[in-house]
Design goal:
Layout lengths: L5 H11 L2 H20 L10 H21 L2
Length: about 70
């Protein structure tokens, strides 16, 4: 992370240590994994770039209601 201001690097490191970040990344991973299983795809890397975008979009949509409802 060359040439980034120290405050930005510190902020990023602090965010990465939070429980909220851990929960978010776990939820995203699980949602993507579920969509891959439903599509009978074993590995995310097997998908084309367009298919990867579609899976991520669907995963985000499925999480949107969960995150908003969990407030």
């Amino acid at each position: 992370m060359a040439n980034l201001p120290a405050w930005l690097v510190d902020s990023r490191e602090n965010v990465l240590k939070t429980q909220e970040w851990h929960n978010l990344t776990t939820n995203i991973y699980d949602a993507v994994d579920q969509h891959l299983a439903q599509s009978h795809v074993q590995y995310f890397t097997d998908l084309s770039d367009a298919e990867k975008s579609l899976v991520l979009e669907r995963a985000a949509r499925s999480l949107k209601g969960t995150v908003n409802g969990a407030r």
